Amino acid sequence: MLQTDKRRETGSVFNSLSLAAVLLISAALRFVNLDRTSLWYDEAVSWSQSNGSFSELLTAVSADNYPPLHNIILWLTMPFLGDSEIALRVPSAILGTIAVWLTYLVGRSIGSQRLGLLAAALLCFSPFHIWYSTEARMYALLATCGLGFLLSVLNVLKQPSRKWLVLLTIFGALFLYSHIYALLAFAPVGLTCAAYALRDVIKNRSLTGSPAVAACIAMGASAITFFPWLLILAGRARSVAADGFWIAFPDLNFLKNMAFAISGSLELIILLLGFAAIFLVKLIYETAIRSGNATRSSQNLAILLAYTFGPLMLAYVYSVLVQPILFDRYLIAAWPGFLLLASAGACSLQIRLLPPALIAASLILSYSELSFTLTDKIRPEWREIVQDYREQKMPNDKLVLYKGFAAPALEYYLREPSAFKATEKSMQPAELSLDTESGERWLLVVHSNAAETEAATRAVSNKDKPPAAQRFGWGASGLRLLKGRTDQ
Q1: What local confidence, expressed as pLDDT, does residue 286 receive?
Q2: Pairing mode, if any, of strands 479-483 and 440-446?
Q3: Disulfide-capable partner of 432 in 141, 274, 459, 473 (CB 3.0 to 4.6 Å)?
Q4: Which residue in 438, 444, 436 sits closest to 399, CA to CA?
Q5: What's the Cα-to-Cα distance from 9 to each of 5, 14, 18, 142, rounded to whole Å?
Q6: CB–CB of 482/460 below 8 Å?
Q7: Cβ neighbours of residue 266 under 8 Å, at least 6 residues apart?
Q8: 418-472: pLDDT as tens digits
Q9: Tens digits of per-residue pLDDT, 60-69?
Q10: How many Å apart are CA 171 and CA 145, to the nearest integer?
């Protein structure tokens, strides 16, 4: 007995130390060099929308395609932390580290500390998760709130205490207010809980005493709090449908590239799929021969499957039937769920060295992408192009920006709104001209295809003259700074 207690105590200490190490590494990977890259357009939009009064924030976000929770976090933190690149990204880095801890808690809830540690370690080193934990956008928030929601659902289904019912209501609301894709996980999980609730009601002939009914009530309260913003998003959806959207159709090549972007290695995602399949098959087999003993595990699996694959399947079907909305970073909340399924499969084999071997294999297979993410991967170089402009311009020079949607990024780095003018959305590149009398002597061309870039260059610059500066940016143009002709 004493030896057993001693082994348990030793194991508990080892698990605690292992978790602490995983969390410290997670924080290091997410906090180091937060300002290595410029803010890109979307991050600058977050800054711009959160940089005024609270009512101005809500007005600005209501004209966009997502809920306001991340903007509210920036609005609350900027008065204390400032609005530097690091300050704007710190909330995401914190949330990304918390997500690793929550992954451990979910794994422990559905299986064991060993399972939780394995899944947390896999997420810790995930290049995909690290990258979006260093971005001043809502993606780390989406993953973290999603894991809090998932953990709360699992605990309510296990034992519907007041604490977990309150947490489910709160995390459900936070999840929904983090990103529109939260609906694609919230709805399948809610329907799964509703199916279990219906089973319990039929079996017990009572609405009371069913954990699934309690979970549905708590989720219903979350949905009610989100309903006002859902109406706003519904109006925006009609506008987006009318204007079109930038996401490509999800053909086979698109799906392959998306799988690589999320996993960092196609070999790794195949390996993880194999372990997830092992877990699924073993659980189905155990349920078939010992249904009474496998009920809770089956229920946990159903919730985890709904949370993980619901967003992917619903977004894919919508993309095929209506218009493309499936994109890699929107699935960041589902990625920890997939890692949990794979970890459950690895742990179910009860091979002592398999979890550390899986971590090692994950690092080896995704090392190239991990190294690239930490040291070489960049975002459009707005900081650098503004520095180029400042070094070459005369004191009274002004800048024209083509295209105007990128104005927040230019405004963030110039910090002089009156020093540039953004073109109208409908303006064609051949129509560009510089009003030299008012000081407009420079043109910045961004996010344009080859034809637009060539037409814009011909419109304002001397023929065959190289750009004054060229920095990385999307599209054939990159971030191209042109000095206007002196005869304009």
Answers
A1: 75
A2: antiparallel
A3: 459
A4: 444
A5: 6, 9, 14, 36
A6: yes
A7: 256, 259, 260
A8: 889 999 888 888 888 898 888 889 999 999 999 999 999 998 887 678 899 999 9
A9: 999 888 999 9
A10: 6
